[in-house]
Amino acid sequence: MAVATVIDHSAKVLNRIDQNIKDLLIVSGEIVRSDAKANTPVDLGTLRGSIISEVSKGKAKIGSDMAYAARIELGYNDTDILGRSFNQKGWYMLTNALRNNSDNIVKLFKEKLIK
């Protein structure tokens, strides 16, 4: 009687897929981060230098923790708590960076994951 031995490699395959996805998220995040930094307005360069990309829990997060980053990204048309009035248009550097690179990122994922 012939006996076949089946070895389960599914955990190894899933780990490799997870690592490939993490690597693609890192690359994608860096693409968007780089584009956003290039399109961030500069006074002292603090905001531009604060834009980071990090990958965690299957997501790439790109942004800045600077207190005024949202004002620069989205604009601000109001009076702040110090009584200063602003009518500042948004630069949308993060939004545009993602929008401008989304097709290339999708293509990158397809090339690496669908073979």
Structure report:
It is built from four helices and four strands, in the order ααββαββα. With 115 residues, the protein is of the alpha+beta class. The chain has a domain at 10-63 and 92-113. The strands form two sheets. Strands 1-2 form a two-stranded antiparallel ribbon. Strands 3-4 form a two-stranded antiparallel sheet. Strand 1 (52-56) and strand 2 (59-63) form a beta hairpin. The chain is elongated and about 90 Å long.
Secondary structure layout plus pairing:
Layout: H1 10-38, H2 46-50, E1 52-56, E2 59-63, H3 69-74, E3 76-79, E4 85-88, H4 93-113
Antiparallel strand pairs: 1-2, 3-4
Helix pairs in contact: 1-4
Output the structural class. alpha+beta
Flag low-confidence runs.
Answer: none
User: In angstroms, what is the radius of gyration?
Assistant: 21 Å
User: Strands of the largest sheet, in order across it?
Assistant: 1-2
Strand portion, in percent? 15-25%
Task: Note the main attributes of this structure.
115 residues, alpha+beta, two-stranded antiparallel sheet, 4 helices, 53% helix, 16% strand
Provide a short characterization of the protein structure:
This protein has 115 residues and is of the alpha+beta class. The protein has a domain at 10-63 and 92-113.
